[in-house]
Amino acid sequence: MTDNNHSIYELVRVLEDAWNGSNSQRFASVFAEDADFITVMGKHYNGRGPIDAGHRAIFDTIYKGSRNRYTIEGVRFVRPDVVVVFVRALLELADDKTISARPTMVLTKENGKWQVEVLQNTVVAAENASPLEMARAGA
């Protein structure tokens, strides 16, 4: 594994560890100051501060006690300092329900360190769910 790939995997590990520790500041720390984050429900946060605040709110409420497991499915270098990272997330809720999602991230390398510029999170629908069923489920 190259140093670049190792650093990218470490960044994703920080996101996972921060989520599992309900640490919104650490979670937001790997984002660029003016990053964009689009949630699974389509809410758009712009900036590290709002990303921190949004995650603080969900860590204290709907995702309290949840555990997230991130697996990198692919890394695509657009340029040596720009990469797209495809992740699979498995969120285990406190009530034993699970949500599968596919966050896609655009990372840039600034001063030798990778940071998230854009993260778009998408819920993975049940394999045979119709668009109407997905809409009713809020996906």
Walkthrough of the structure:
The chain has helices at 3-20, 24-29, 48-60, 131-136, and strands at 31-38, 44-46, 67-79, 82-92, 98-101, 104-110, 113-120. The protein is 31% helix and 39% strand. The model has no long low-confidence stretch (mean pLDDT 91). Strands 1, 2, 3, 4, 5, 6 and 7 form a 7-stranded mixed β-sheet that branches. With 139 residues, the chain is α+β, with helices and mostly antiparallel strands.
Helix content: 25-40%
Order of helices and strands: HHEEHEEEEEH
| Number of helices, where a helix is a run of at least 4 consecutive DSSP H or I residues | 4
| Distance, first to last CA | 35 Å
Rounded mean pLDDT is: 91
Secondary-structure-derived class: alpha+beta
Name the shape in a single word. globular
Largest beta-sheet details: 7 strands, mixed
E-strand count:
7
Poorly predicted ranges (pLDDT <50, ≥5 residues)? none
Strand content: 35-45%
Radius of gyration: 15 Å
Secondary-structure blueprint of this entry?
Blueprint: H1 3-20, H2 24-29, E1 31-38, E2 44-46, H3 48-60, E3 67-79, E4 82-92, E5 98-101, E6 104-110, E7 113-120, H4 131-136
Parallel strand pairs: 1-7
Antiparallel strand pairs: 1-2, 3-4, 4-5, 4-6, 6-7
Task: Name the descriptors.
single chain, 139 residues, alpha+beta, 7-stranded mixed sheet, 4 helices, globular
Short structural description:
This protein has 139 residues and is an alpha+beta fold. It has helices at 3-20, 24-29, 48-60, 131-136, and strands at 31-38, 44-46, 67-79, 82-92, 98-101, 104-110, 113-120.
